[in-house]
User: Fold this.
Amino acid sequence: MLLGSEKAEITFYLPTPPKVSKAWHWQNTNAIEQIINDNGNHWRKIFTIMAKIAVTDKAPDTWRDCRNQLFNPQATDDLKRVDFSQCNIIINATKLSVNSHIHIICGQAAFANISDQSFISALTAIDESQKIMAHEQILITPYLDYRQFPNVLIEQLRRYLSSLKQSLL
Assistant:
């Protein structure tokens, strides 16, 4: 299941889908709000952590402004606040998206679904607690929940992504 554009710059891989209505579409201006309303606090937290990760270094406190535009930031003035042009979520992915530049595999269940794990031997920890592992643009992180992914880890991931983005330019 894909939530967002197929050609998003950053893909978050998750194991469990939200409930979405048949009328739901990622390009709707209220697409994320609708998922939050239909699924509750759990998905609000997921999108909040995604926004905190994707927001630019120049405006780290504007994650609230960009959260509801993660799938479609060009629809608003928030584009300048998001480090990546667009984010998406792939649920139960068995392979990494060929269209994305950055791959964030969230939690062990999502990681277990990925069939090609040839990158695993090249993974290195980017944080002292070794909760975030990376090999270039492929990252394995805790599930997007504050108990597993506190703000200190979010900030460490943001720094890594910022340096990675600079190396991609």
